[in-house]
Amino acid sequence: MQEAQVVTMASAEPLTALSRWYLYAIHGYFCEVMFTAAWEFVVNFNWKFPGVTSVWALFIYGTSILIVERMYLRLRSRCPLLVRCLIYTLWTYLWEFTTGFILRQFNACPWDYSQFDFDFMGLITLEYAVPWFCGALIMEQFIIRNTLRLRFDKDAEPGEPANPPALANGHVKTD
């Protein structure tokens, strides 16, 4: 029984970078839709909650969060959480400006912050600093950390529960 447990655990591999990118892209896309829906409700009291985004958001969020994942892995033992979140927030502003600037060259930038008081070229705005910081905290503590814990079991059959041992939070479940 012990040998079977070791073999099953050894077949579980971390997700590939492409798999993680996909999860991060879908997460960012979903958050963008939910944020714009909530914003529309708060600003215009629109009970329809119309959330919008662009297909570009998949690339933008997926790539950005994958880069932040690399930052997290390098910085987690070197600096405190709040400093890391500040670094992620600064990265977010740099990434949003850069991707927005490139997309604007093709008339494809889906956002425009020109109506905000503290915008820069309509591509970024300081009014979003707190939401970006909170998003960075959530991104590290929940999204990235949990995504890095996911494993792919190449021997598992689709739709079939795992044979013993069932893994629970990285530990062999013995009951």
UniProtKB/TrEMBL annotation:
It is a multi-pass membrane protein. InterPro entries: CmpB_TMEM229. GO terms for cellular component: membrane. The keyword Transmembrane helix applies. Coiled coil: none annotated. It comes from the Eukaryota. Keywords: Membrane, Transmembrane, Transmembrane helix. The chain crosses the membrane at residues 21-42, 54-73, 85-103, 123-144. Its main location: membrane. Residues 156-175 are annotated as: Disordered. It is found in: Membrane. Belongs to the TMEM229 family. This is Transmembrane protein 229B. It comes from Neotoma lepida (Desert woodrat). The lineage of its organism: Eukaryota, Metazoa, Chordata, Craniata, Vertebrata.
